[in-house]
Amino acid sequence: MTCRYFFSGPAPEKSVIVFERGFKKTPVCARAPLRLQSQCAHGFVSPVVLPHKIATLLYCFNERDEVLLMERLREPNKGLWSPCGGKLVTETGESPYACACREAHEEIGWKLEPADLHLTGIVSEHGYQGQAHWLMFLFEVKPRLPAAALPAAHAEGRFEFFARDALDALRLPETDRQQIWPLFWRHRGGFFAAHCRATENCRNEWLLEESIPQHRANA
């Protein structure tokens, strides 16, 4: 039985579909979903499932209502500004709230309890950058950081406080700029759930699955 193997995914400048055994290489969009398929002589195609990763993001504010962001030194989003956070330890059954508290202590040296967190949103991303599916829990931290208490830089990146209107000038992940930040500001104090699906034509399709803006949450 003759089989051909196809691979597509992001590269520094472009991605290619590679046909082994010397078949033609064809460029594809670097943002297209990752595929690893085995196509045999009878035409059957079996896709390999992408990993599903679960993470938390911490939206921390100081006494001036400036948001704390980290310029990341590592992938994903290397060189871009985003809230701090990290992946759940799924092997131990860690909850999103426990993960957020642990990440707050590890990244900014702040000891939090689940009661210190407000779950503002849940974002699921299908085929993000062609590498993985993501499920992200967005928490606003209720206690405020002192305006002068900037966390120290570490191996993950460096921190700065920013006013809301300063975010437009920052290097942000595109999904954050286009969708996640607008959804966060609209639902701050409330709740939302949104799903993003990467398509083959390099477009992200967004679906707002639940929306409870702040004024409705406080009604």
Task: Give short descriptive properties of this protein.
single chain, 219 residues, mainly beta, Nucleoside Triphosphate Pyrophosphohydrolase, 2 domains, six-stranded mixed sheet, three-stranded antiparallel sheet, 3 helices, 14 strands, globular, disordered N terminus
Q: What would you note in describing this structure?
A:
The chain is mostly beta strands and 219 residues long. It folds into two domains: 3-47, no CATH class; 52-217, Nucleoside Triphosphate Pyrophosphohydrolase, CATH 3.90.79.10. Helices cover 14% and strands 39% of the residues. The protein has three helices and 14 strands. It has helices at 96-108, 174-187, 214-217; strands at 3-8, 15-17, 26-28, 35-40, 45-47, 52-59, 67-72, 81-82, 84-87, 117-128, 132-141, 157-162, 191-198, 204-212. Strands 9-6-11-10-13-14 form a six-stranded mixed sheet, with helices on both faces. The protein has a three-stranded antiparallel sheet with strand order 1-4-5, with no helix packed on it. It has a three-stranded antiparallel sheet with strand order 8-7-12, with no helix packed on it. Strand 7 (67-72) and strand 8 (81-82) form a beta hairpin. It starts with a strand and ends with a helix.
